[in-house]
Design goal:
Elements: H1 8-21, H2 25-31, H3 39-44, H4 46-66, H5 69-92, H6 99-122, H7 138-157, H8 165-189, H9 219-234, H10 238-267, H11 269-277
Helix pairs in contact: 1-5, 1-6, 4-5, 5-6, 6-8, 8-9, 9-10, 10-11
Length: 291
C-alpha cells in the first residue's frame, strides 16, 4: 500500500463526493413539511427539479471558488458521482416503481468513484482523471446508454418485467460481490495494480499470489465481469444481460491474453508456474497458451 497519507487529489475527491451527496438533504428537508411517500413526486415535478438544479449549481459554484485547474477537474467529477449516488439513494428509498433503477445509479456511481479513490490510496503515481474510468471507451459508453434505453422502453411497454424483485435482488448481490472482489484485488495488489496494461516492468513490480490472487489469477477482472452483468440482472434487462455477458467475456479474454504476455515477460517461469496452479476465474478463459 502506498503511503499512509492520502494525496491531495484523493482528499479533494472525498470532500467533493460528500458535497455532491448532500443532494439527499433536499428530500430530508422536504419531509419536514410533508410525508415521505410523496417526496419522489415532489422531486420529479417542476419545484423539485428546480430545487435539485439550484443545489447542483450552488455546489459547482463553490467548487469553482475553492479549486482551480486539474484539481477542479477531479472535484467536479467526484461531485457529479456524489450527486448521482445521492439521487440513487433518494429514488431507492422513495415510494416509486423506479426503485431498482435507484439501486443501479448507486452501484454505477460508487463503482466509478471507488476506482479513483482506491487508486489514490494504493498507487498515487498512476492516478489521473482516467482513474475514474468515466471515459473508459466508446463501447463502454454505448453499453451504458443501451441499458438505460432498454430499461425505459421495457418499463413503459412491459412494466411487469421490471417488478421481478427477486431477480433484481440477485443482481444486487452480484453487483456487491463483484465490486467487493475487484476492490479486494486492487488493495491486495497495492502499487502493482494499474488500470493500464504495463509493457515495461517497474522496479517495484512484484508477482502477487496471495489473498484473492491465491484463488483467481485475475480477480479484478472477475469482479468487474460479474459486476457488469449484475447491473443488468438488477435492472431486469434481458437483452443487455446477454449483450453484456458476450461483450464482457470477449473484452476480458483479449485483455487477459495481452496482460499475460507482459507478465510472462516480467516474471518468466514464476508466472508460468503460478498460471498452472491458479485459474483465471472467468468461465472458459484460460489465458495465453504456454508451450
Amino acid at each position: 500500500m502506498a503511503g499512509s497519507k492520502l494525496v491531495l487529489e484523493g482528499r479533494v475527491s472525498i470532500k467533493s463526493f460528500i458535497l455532491g451527496l448532500s443532494v439527499v438533504l433536499i428530500p430530508i428537508i422536504r419531509t419536514w413539511f410533508g410525508h415521505l411517500d410523496w417526496v419522489f413526486d415532489y422531486l420529479t415535478e417542476t419545484p423539485g427539479k428546480i430545487a435539485i438544479c439550484v443545489h447542483i449549481a450552488a455546489i459547482n459554484g463553490l467548487l469553482l471558488v475553492i479549486y482551480r485547474g486539474p484539481v477542479y477537474k477531479v472535484a467536479v467529477r467526484a461531485c457529479f458521482l456524489g450527486v448521482t449516488f445521492g439521487c440513487g439513494l433518494i429514488i431507492s428509498f422513495s415510494d416509486t416503481t423506479w426503485t431498482h433503477f435507484g439501486w443501479y445509479m448507486c452501484s454505477l456511481s460508487f463503482f466509478h468513484y471507488s476506482e479513483y479513490l482506491v487508486t489514490a490510496v494504493i498507487n498515487p503515481r498512476s492516478l489521473s482523471l482516467d482513474s475514474f474510468l468515466l471515459n473508459h471507451s466508446l463501447e463502454y459508453t454505448l453499453a451504458a446508454v443501451s441499458s438505460w434505453l432498454e430499461f425505459t422502453v421495457e418499463k413503459l411497454t412491459v412494466p411487469e418485467l421490471k417488478h421481478l424483485n427477486w431477480i433484481s435482488l440477485v443482481g444486487l448481490i452480484m453487483v456487491l460481490c463483484g465490486e467487493g472482489l475487484r476492490k479486494a484485488a486492487m488493495l491486495t495488489a497495492g502499487s502493482n495494480f494499474n488500470h493500464i496494461v504495463q509493457n515495461e516492468k517497474a522496479q517495484s513490480h512484484i508477482l502477487v499470489t496471495t489473498g484473492v490472487y491465491a484463488y483467481f489469477r485475475h480477480p479484478s477482472y472477475v469482479g468487474w465481469f460479474y459486476w457488469s452483468i449484475g447491473t443488468q440482472v438488477l435492472l431486469c434487462n434481458p437483452i443487455c444481460i446477454v449483450g453484456y455477458t458476450i461483450a464482457s467475456w470477449r473484452f476480458f479474454r483479449e485483455r487477459i491474453e495481452e496482460e499475460e504476455l507482459s507478465l510472462i515477460h516480467f516474471f518468466a517461469e514464476d508466472y508460468v508456474e503460478y498460471k498452472r496452479k491458479v485459474p483465471t476465474g472467468l468461465p472458459f478463459i484460460s489465458g495465453i497458451r504456454v508451450n
